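Weekly modeling sync, notes
Attendees: AB, CL, MP (scribe)

Item 1: holo prediction request
CL wants a bound-state model with BJW before deciding which constructs to order. AB pointed out that an apo prediction alone won't tell us much about the pocket. Agreed to run with the ligand included and paste results into these notes for async review.

Input as submitted:
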Amino acid sequence: MDIDSIIEEVTKTEPKIVSVLGAGISKASGMPTFRGEDGWWNQYRAEDLATPYAFSQDPKLVWEWYRARMRILLDAKPNIAHESLVKLEKEGISIGTITQNVDGLHEIAGMKKYVEIHGRIRYSKCSICNYNERWDKEKLAQKDSDLPYCPNCKTNLLRPDVVWFGETLDSAKWEQAIKWTLEANVLLVVGTSGVVHPVASLPYYARQKGAVIIEFNVEETPLSSTCDFSLLGPCEETLPKFTDILIQRLKKED
Ligand code: BJW
């Protein structure tokens, strides 16, 4: 279906949009995805890098990978897809964004109402005490062979402030994600493979409430059959087109 017909559907009532984001939205900013052709999981096994067990077995390897990703991030900038969601927020059409991305590019783009459900790669936390700190260029300049220890308790290792497989999500963030999803009458599912739970279950919650669900992805995903519409193509093209037409249409109606 073409974008105009989707907009027709979305504007039948006043749209209250919630977006669920995955790695695909940051691809145009130079950030590799996890499961795509150039994805991290083609080079490494997730179990070797993104689990508490992996960290306990080989913290150097895990830190090496996170430092490499942080270094890529230092040069990355938000792209037009992030910016289009910020526009929706400024127009009061977006009620919230649930991002699985740890890159913080949505924040740099100016987004205000979001939850980073899988954490933040720019921050490190103590594996045991409550210490948490932002990582800057200086910290990143440390040699990969140097393991960072907590400056507070001084005995335990710092680890990236992200959610690994087998770890529970922050309950306040998850509750916010569910609240927004149940309030939405339009859910945008952008650049996610839709295989990682519990985030992959959010479209089902939205479906139960009768929301219109629109997927933006370069390919079909396991979520496609739950979505009302799939806009196939790079989201840095389809999403700004969608949001611009939507904003124009709503302004005309005012
Ligand atoms: C484009 C594009 C362009 C490209 N434009 N599109 C229920 C059922 C089955 C399993 C479970 C379940 N509940 C829990 C689990 C276990 C597990 C899980 O989901 N496993 C499945 C994979 C099998 N989940 C968990 O362990 C979660 N914890 C949890 O549920 O706690 C409770 C619990 C604990 C224990 C037992 C039971 C319950 C935690 C999940 C944490 C995920 N962590 C990671 C790493 C974060 C830190 C880091 O970044 O290093 O999060 S894994 C990785 O996957 C990362 C991502 O946020 C996440 C999702 O990936 P995403 O964003 O979808 O990326 P890709 O690469 O997969 O997809 C990119 C997409 O973009 C593709 O579709 C492309 O086509 C598309 N694309 N270019 C548009 N230009």
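Recorded for review: Residues 39-75+123-162 form a domain with the SIR2/SIRT2 'Small Domain' fold (CATH 3.30.1600.10).
Action items: CL to compare against the apo run; MP to circulate these notes.
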